[in-house]
Specification:
Elements (H helix, E strand, L loop, with lengths): L1 E9 L3 H10 L5 E5 L15 E2 L8 H11 L6 H21 L24 E2 L5 H15 L3 E5 L1 E6 L20 E6 L4 E12 L20 H9 L3 E2 L4 E8 L11 H5 L3 E3 L19 H15 L4 E4 L5 H7 L1 H9 L9 E10 L2 E3 L11 E3 L4 E2 L11 H22 L23 H17 L6 H23 L5 H22 L25 E2 L5 H8 L6
Parallel strand pairs: 1-2, 1-8, 2-5, 8-15, 14-16
Antiparallel strand pairs: 3-4, 6-7, 7-8, 9-14, 9-17, 10-13, 11-12, 12-13
The protein binds flavin-adenine dinucleotide and succinic acid (SIN).
Length: 550
């Protein structure tokens, strides 16, 4: 089947939905999403959205905190935009109907999280993401210009690659005309043609064995963009959240940083508070420092977890402020008001991704990216807590501003895009290989490309993942595509991108810590690590962004 639309949005988290709601007033929007509409990282966000809304706060202070957490790699212009546009975008959520928690004076109840010098986290108790996701989905469903395709998974972006044309003889840029998409229920593959395509596919936490991310987070957007020839940056900066519930059935359930902002203390199993030994902000140090401190305490003691202690805080207030965490822990027989919570770090967020400029344009014409999939430059080497939902809101709006003008002036004829060709493929019987490969990648990444790295470990991971990725590619070529095969192929690509970036960085900075180069080397300054698939892409990219000091 062939669909045609003005805007194709891939992903229905905060980035995709907020873009769609803005753009739908200027054209038709098709949102494709690979599971149920609400299933996204957004839906699980707890802490909230960082934004300067208090009279005692200032843009300069939020900018300063963001730059500090980013350890020298943030792009200042992107950070300024993020912070200054933030309050407008938060107000827009309120207009859509998001009910943020308020104090008795009807002002936002502002939480505190690691790395922030002020209370500035706007939240809906500890289910901010669910509240935002449901509200945006409701508005989306009511908009006559928006159509949502649930259980549709994008396989690949449509570019010159699919025309059989000689890429090198084209203009300076590739062009994206939409995507090949699998309707999972019917197992049909459709062509979605669009004047502008917006990647809003979120992160790729599933590449690690332990992650706070739900199963949809398989890095599809980064992998598709990379295959299409887009420039990818800073994939080594994977953020590990310090505190997830330690329990074999808890699926790395997140214990929000807001719990530490509320007064929670980290202790060893012997009861010793250890964070003051690592940083002046103790439990509220930036996330990379807290996660590494826990890792180091666990290695020293041989214990499996540390403790997050809130038993000294008011039980009623705790239950009111963190109802979801309280309930979830209770399910696993931990009453957080009475006993400390066993916690461990888990993979949480990808700071790098598909390179964009301030308008969310990627290096492929007609292809935009926003939200976790994008590398806008705001996070640098380590994202400041609760800046992610904010980034998604602000940059989705930037994409809207630019793409609406782009489609107005759209003069390119859609080329004849061939239907999906699955000649020579068949329904393979060895499906068990898919789950084995996935588990193997996740374990390798956890063991060798985790919180503390070394060249030896990275090289070992590189060799092994390359072997698995090649096998997957062979299997993919002769097998009828399914969602799990698409995701596996993407996970393997993302693992390779992370390892390649990590090997490129010969220093420890922010989230990338390696025992071979333990110093953050500000003399031999290493900027963003760029990865490109096409041989001329990097030069094309540098030519097209001459004003950025890469
Ligand atoms: P997502 O919300 O992940 O949405 C991605 C969408 O793309 C999904 O609908 C998915 O199904 C779809 N998709 C993916 N691949 C395909 C494909 N191939 N085809 C079709 N559809 C596809 N950040 C904060 O700022 N504050 C917080 O308090 C906070 N808490 C968090 C708590 C948890 C447990 C987690 C996991 C993350 C948290 N984060 C938080 C991070 C933040 O939630 C995410 O970075 C953000 O929600 C990403 O939004 P997004 O729209 O880019 O992607
Ligand atoms: C949390 O609530 O701790 C997550 C916040 C974030 O990822 O920014």
């Amino acid at each position: 089947m062939l669909y045609q639309t003005d805007f194709l949005v891939i992903g229905s988290g905060i980035a995709g939905l907020s873009f769609a709601l803005a753009a739908a007033n200027c054209g038709t929007v098709a949102i494709i999403t690979k599971k149920e509409q609400a299933e996204s990282n957004t839906n699980y966000a707890q802490g909230g959205i960082a934004s300067v809304v208090a009279p005692t706060d200032s843009f300069d202070s939020h900018i300063e905190d963001t730059l500090k957490a980013g350890a020298g790699l943030c792009h200042r212009d992107a950070v300024q935009l993020l912070v200054q546009e933030g309050p407008r975008r938060v107000q827009e959520l309120v207009r859509f109907g998001v009910e943020f928690t308020r104090n008795p004076q009807n002002q936002f109840d502002l939480g505190r999280e690691g790395g922030h010098s002020q209370n500035r986290i706007v939240h809906a108790r500890d289910f901010t993401g669910k509240m935002v996701e449901n509200t945006l989905l409701e508005a989306t469903r009511m908009h006559p210009n928006i159509q949502i395709f649930e259980n549709y998974i994008a396989i690949d972006l449509l570019t010159e690659h699919h025309l059989g044309a000689e890429i090198e003889s084209q203009t300076d840029f590739y062009t994206c005309w939409g995507a090949y998409v699998l309707n999972e229920e019917k197992r049909d593959i459709h062509r979605f043609l669009a004047k502008a395509t917006i990647l809003a596919t979120g992160g790729g936490g599933q590449v690690y064995l332990h992650t706070t991310n739900p199963s949809i987070a398989t890095g599809d957007g980064v992998a598709m963009a990379y295959r299409a020839g887009a420039v990818i940056a800073n994939m080594e900066f994977i953020q590990f959240h310090p505190t997830t519930l330690f329990h074999p059935s808890a699926n790395s359930f997140l214990i929000s940083e807001a719990v530490r902002g509320f007064g929670g203390l980290l202790r060893t199993q012997k009861g010793e508070r250890f964070m003051p030994r690592y940083h002046e902000l103790a439990e509220l140090a930036p996330r990379d420092i807290v996660a590494r401190a826990i890792d180091s305490e666990l290695k020293k003691s041989g214990d499996e977890y540390v403790l997050l202690d809130v038993t000294h805080l008011d039980a009623k207030q705790l239950r009111e402020r963190f109802p979801r965490i309280y309930e979830q822990c209770l399910k696993f027989n931990f009453d957080i008001t009475r006993e400390p919570i066993p916690v461990v770090p888990a993979a949480h967020y990808a700071c790098g991704g598909v390179v964009t400029n301030l308008n969310g344009q990627t290096t492929i014409r007609g292809l935009y990216a926003c939200g976790e999939v994008a590398h806008t430059g705001v996070h640098g080497a380590n994202r400041l807590a609760s800046n992610s939902l904010l980034e998604a809101l602000v940059f989705a709006y930037q994409v809207y501003g630019h793409s609406v003008e782009y489609i107005k002036n759209f003069s390119i004829q859609f080329p004849e895009i061939p239907s999906w060709n699955d000649e020579g493929t068949f329904n393979h019987e060895e499906w068990v290989l898919v789950s084995h490969d996935k588990a193997e990648i996740q374990e390798l990444m956890w063991d060798y490309v985790g919180i503390v790295r070394s060249n030896l470990r990275l090289e070992r991971a590189r060799r092994r993942v390359e072997l698995i990725a090649n096998e997957i590619e062979q299997f993919y070529k002769k097998t009828k595509v399914t969602a799990s095969l698409i995701e596996l192929r993407n996970l393997a690509s993302v693992a390779q991108l992370i390892i390649t970036s990590a090997l490129q960085r010969t220093e420890s900075r922010g989230l990338h810590y390696t025992t071979d180069y333990p110093q953050c080397d500000d003399k031999n300054w290493q900027r963003d690590t760029l990865i490109v698939s096409g041989k001329n892409e990097k030069q094309r990219f540098l030519n097209s962004y001459p004003d950025i000091d890469w």
